[in-house]
Design a protein that fits this description.
The complex is a heterodimer of chains A (509) and B (506). Chain A is of the alpha/beta class. Helix content of chain A is 48%, strand content 14%. The two termini of chain A are 55 Å apart. In chain B, α2 packs across α10, α3 packs across α9 and α5 packs antiparallel against α6. Classes of the chains: A alpha/beta (509), B alpha/beta (506). Chains A and B meet through α5, β1, β2, β3 and α8 of A and α6, α8, β1, β2 and β3 of B. β1 of chain A pairs antiparallel with β1 of chain B, so a sheet runs across the interface.
């Protein structure tokens, strides 16, 4: 198999999306993706994350690569490679800005050295790695051939030779005020070391560092350039070799390797992002995906944005399960407020979206449908000067959504009609529910209206729950059961985590 | 050169954060009274004793190490106070001569400042060695023996002469010789200050006749930019030597500072010992036991802050609580319960920092952190109800607890009705005991206290009341009684008032 892209199995290169999908804000996916890509600005990864797939084969291709990268050793290899490639880019950008000839050539040589090192090291490392994915196997083969090519071999050998010869140069500068001389170094001893020894015995603890940061500036003033000129005169051969080498290898970075370096970061970024969350003990899994089957299930899933926000805290992230069996399509979530209903709705959307990217999803085990689109309507915190205006706005938005929805879509409705009268809300909700049922689309509907959960065989009731021992405690568990409309208040002691069980849990023995 | 007078193997780190809940412990145990008595108005000593006492040791050997040093101090008060003055005087000299490296930016200037400071400090180090030579034989503790031996060995005449020589050489009157290599991008790097080869005494003058070529460059007199660049190169060469000298100056300063810091703790102890001795109160070196044991015994244990505040001898208690995880203290109001609880906390803290304790004898297991949860008169923040505030504080304590910690409760969970308070207290204490936390609990919640009656790892103490109703302020072993002594407090205040009046008339 010829290697083209680590993101796509087929020859067709994926178009990159530049705009974030409309539902990102509602599902808090904007936070998630921003966070994932934040430390990777130079790769411009967002377009990859803005384009979900609906091609089961391509998703598997990505899942395979991602699984391979879960191996910490392989991941470390890729990270080392990426770090070096990033340095190569930085050095080449620097060369463009410099003035003195041997200075420019010096940095150009550095860039080549790092590049050769990056590529060679990755080949060596990959040869030991147990690669299962088609993508990485193909890339390994590509890279192996590249490294064994005579062009690459000569590039590498020569670069190292030239560098070694320059590295052997050692000279002295004698500085007086207003003048200086340059000559070869003649074995004079280090006076700083001698001074250090004298005062060594007082060394204790960390003290301030009085080394003045006379930064290793990229750039040379005319004095340094003059010294370099004298040095080149004292040691003519290594500089001549540098001249020859630079003129022979003007362009050296391979296009396919360059693309790989960017695309592999899609996986690296995601895995880095979920690593902290995994450390909290939360599971991720590779979902089984389908464009046809709607009998979904998920075990121990959670809201990725919430888990990320709580990753360094002791606060637990509550996991939830759900399943749909024939002919169920619509999950109606009701129950006490602040009980995790919205979180559940977000989680539902996130699971489907992340699955469609080919990423592991937040949960223990999952089988998920690949929708053609995800449509959301979340209650906006607008000022409610006028209830009719608000209701009208809601209806307009719902109408737009229903105009676009297909039997393959996923709909997520969160507390729509919350600010109108119960009678109106019930009437409108029933109307809309009827349409969604007729469509056969998958839907999560968060509502305070119990009755919606009993409208037909396509609806499933799920309820946010409280602790059975103490009905004032929310568990943030959303369970499949009929809606019961209980009212609740917080108990102070449990809020503080001071029951017998809670304390035993909090103090680790 | 290490001081090591607080730990056998390291210096005290004044920057280390105080344990969690320090503020509560300071408030509840009235520790500022103790610190003030130790500091005698010296803010530096106050800060030191506060940090040392609040950063207790959890290692028996380290505690005995300090106890031995403190015994030496108590025997040689004058010598200790004399040594303590040396770092203080060195600091004053520095201030008077405006020496310092702070705010100096060029290696060449850093070098000069550092050299001048070293000259001053070495004067004081010489003086320190003199004191040591005179008194070394009077000290027995491992800590002082090591410290004095180190001074004699490290600061001998030969070393002091070498230092003087180098302070002279570091003036660099003949120009600066720097070697370099080509680094990344052919930029000069690895600038190293060199000592000219020995046969090369007039080395600048002899450059020309050399066989290997040398290229020279003279800057244009108006080339300011070039002069700065050249100065910078020189600074690169001097950088490391300047750093060495400046750090050496700082290290010597820091040695003197650490000496002052660590001795300040013992100075504080000496001050306190003197004050308590004047009051006729006993002190004793306690016998610490490992943290996973449950040891508690003592005679004449008194609340040192109460004695200091009253300026007189106060009532002490005997206690025998070996093998007990929980000490439940009940009984009459104003009967000495809080005082007893404080005396336990104070003795524990003082023991764990290596001090003597206020008692005739005392032994206890070490604890991994001391926490207090005392009833508060009012909720300063006003953000939450009293009960909520109490529980909030409790929750913060739980966050910091690990097995073998110790928690002192004083009338906790009483800001709600007895039934609820008792239930929460019971759950909290039960969980803490099961997590191996040592608990002392002063309470009126009979419903709560009696729940622990069957357990044999619990010691019940009761504020003593004589048959005639008077209080002795002593605690005796005794199970909780269903009624509290509020009524008789009331009785005394409201119905017995005639007695003192009559006494006045007499």
């Amino acid at each position: 198999m010829t290697f083209r892209s680590i993101l796509c199995d087929s020859a067709g290169i994926q178009r990159e999306a530049t705009d974030q999908p409309a539902f990102f804000g509602d599902l808090n996916l904007d936070q998630v993706i921003d966070e994932i890509t934040a430390r990777k600005e130079e790769y411009n990864l967002k377009p990859f994350f803005y384009r979900p797939l609906r091609d089961v084969e391509n998703i598997r291709y990505r899942q395979e690569v991602m699984r391979d990268l879960e191996n910490a050793t392989l991941m470390a290899f890729i990270e080392a490679f990426a770090e070096k490639m990033s340095i190569v880019r930085r050095y080449l950008a620097l060369v463009e800005k410099l003035d003195y000839d041997y200075h420019k050539k010096g940095w150009f040589l550095e860039a080549m050295l790092v590049y050769c090192d990056a590529v060679t090291e990755l080949v060596d490392n990959q040869s030991q790695a147990d690669l299962r994915s088609r993508g990485l196997q193909a890339f390994r083969e590509y890279l192996g051939n590249y490294v064994r090519s005579p062009e690459f071999e000569s590039l590498k050998t020569e670069a190292q030779q030239v560098k070694a010869r320059l590295g052997d140069v050692k000279y002295c500068v004698i500085i007086n005020s207003g003048r200086f001389s340059v000559r070869k170094y003649e074995g004079e001893t280090d006076y700083s070391v001698e001074t250090e020894k004298v005062f060594e015995k007082f060394r204790q603890g960390a003290v301030k560092n009085y080394l003045v940061d006379i930064g290793e500036r990229a750039g040379m003033n005319h004095i340094e350039a003059k010294i370099l000129e004298f040095v080149a005169r004292l040691f003519p051969e290594p500089f001549a070799a540098l001249d020859r080498f630079c003129s022979r290898h003007a362009r050296f970075v391979d296009e396919t390797i360059c693309t790989f370096d960017r695309e592999i970061q899609f996986y690296v970024a995601y895995l880095e992002f979920i690593a902290d969350i995994r450390r909290k003990g939360l599971p991720f899994c590779y979902p089984e995906v389908s464009t046809t089957g709607r009998q979904e299930f998920v075990r121990e899933a959670f809201d990725l944005a919430l888990a990320h926000a709580l990753r360094y805290t002791k606060k637990p992230v509550v996991c939830n399960d759900f399943y749909l069996q024939e002919p169920e399509r619509i999950i109606v979530v009701s129950g006490p407020n602040q009980g995790g209903k919205t979180t559940f709705a977000r989680m539902f959307g996130q699971l489907h979206y992340l699955a469609a990217l080919g990423c592991p999803v937040p949960g223990r085990e999952a089988r998920l449908f690949l929708p053609d689109q995800i449509l959301t309507h979340f209650e906006r915190e607008e000022d409610i000067r006028n209830l009719r205006g608000k209701l009208e706005d809601d209806l307009v938005r719902i109408h737009e959504i229903l105009a676009r929805v297909t039997p393959h879509s996923i709909l997520i409705l969160n507390e729509i009609f919350a600010s109108t009268t119960l009678e109106d809300a019930l009437f409108l909700s029933k109307q809309i529910m009827g349409r969604i049922m007729a469509l056969d689309a998958l839907c999560v509907w968060v509502t305070f209206i119990d009755e919606l959960s009993r409208l037909g065989e396509k609806t499933v009731s799920m309820v946010s729950t409280v602790s059975p021992e103490n009905p004032t405690i929310r568990t943030f568990k959303i369970v499949r059961k009929s809606a019961d409309g209980l009212a609740y208040a917080l108990s102070i002691a449990q809020k503080h985590g001071l029951t017998y069980e809670q304390i035993k849990e909090r103090i680790q023995s | 050169m290490k001081v090591f007078l607080l730990y056998p193997d390291r210096d005290f780190d004044p920057e280390q954060p105080l344990p969690p809940h320090t503020d509560n412990v300071v408030q509840d145990l009235e520790l500022n009274t103790l610190f003030s008595a130790m500091a005698q108005g010296d803010a530096f000593v106050f800060d030191v004793v506060k940090r040392v006492i609040l950063s207790g040791l959890e290692d028996l050997r380290a505690i005995r190490y300090r106890q031995d040093i403190l015994r030496d101090c108590l025997k040689n008060t004058q010598v200790i106070r004399e040594i303590y003055q040396i770092p203080i005087r060195a600091q004053e000299s520095k201030r008077k001569q405006w020496l310092g490296i702070f705010g100096v930016h060029y290696p060449s200037n850093i070098l000069t400042s550092g050299r001048n400071m070293l000259e001053v400090y070495f004067g004081f180090l010489k003086e320190l060695r003199g004191i040591v030579d005179t008194h070394v034989h009077k000290f027995e503790s491992e800590g002082f023996r090591r410290f004095f031996a180190m001074i004699q060995k490290e600061l001998d005449e030969e070393y002091l002469a070498t230092v003087a020589h180098h302070l002279k050489v570091l003036a660099f009157r003949g120009g600066v010789l720097v070697s370099a290599k080509l680094g990344k991008g052919n930029e000069g790097t690895n600038y190293v200050l060199r000592k000219p080869n020995a046969d090369d005494r007039n080395w600048v003058a002899r450059l020309l006749p050399r066989r290997s070529p040398a290229y020279s460059f003279k800057l244009h007199p108006r080339d300011d930019h070039g002069a700065r660049a050249l100065g910078e190169l020189k600074d690169r060469g001097l950088n490391r030597a300047a750093n060495v000298v400046a750090q050496a100056a700082e290290h010597v300063e820091s040695f003197l500072h650490v000496l002052r810091w660590e001795l300040a703790f013992y100075i504080g102890c000496l001050n306190l010992a003197k004050t308590l001795d004047d009051l006729g109160e006993p002190i004793t070196f306690p016998e610490p036991a490992p943290a996973d044991e449950r040891v508690l015994s003592g005679r004449g244990l008194y609340d040192v802050t109460l004695a200091l505040t009253m300026g007189q001898k106060v009532v002490g208690n005997d206690i025998a609580g070996d093998g007990k995880d929980l000490v439940m203290i009940t009984g009459a109001n104003q009967g000495g319960k809080s005082t007893f609880l404080r005396s336990i906390g104070l003795a524990q803290l003082m023991m764990q920092c290596g001090m003597f304790v206020p008692a005739q004898s005392f032994s206890a297991n070490l604890c991994r952190g001391l926490f207090t949860h005392f009833k508060r008169e009012e909720d300063a923040s006003m953000q939450s109800g009293k009960f909520d505030e109490e529980l909030g504080r409790m929750s913060a304590i739980v966050d910091a607890l690990t097995p073998n910690a110790m928690v002192l409760f004083n009338e906790s969970f009483a800001a709600t009705n007895e039934q609820e308070g008792a239930e929460i207290a019971r759950q909290v204490v039960r969980a803490l005991l099961e997590r191996r936390i040592k608990v002392f609990f002063v309470t009126h919640l009979y419903e709560f206290a009696r729940r622990f009656l069957e357990q044999d790892n619990v010691l019940f103490l009761r504020a003593e009341r004589k048959p005639d109703g008077t209080r002795t302020f002593k605690l005796i072993e005794g199970e909780p009684l269903p009624t509290s002594y509020g009524p008789d407090l009331y009785h005394r205040i409201f119905e017995m008032r005639t007695v003192p009046d009559e006494a006045e008339k007499r």
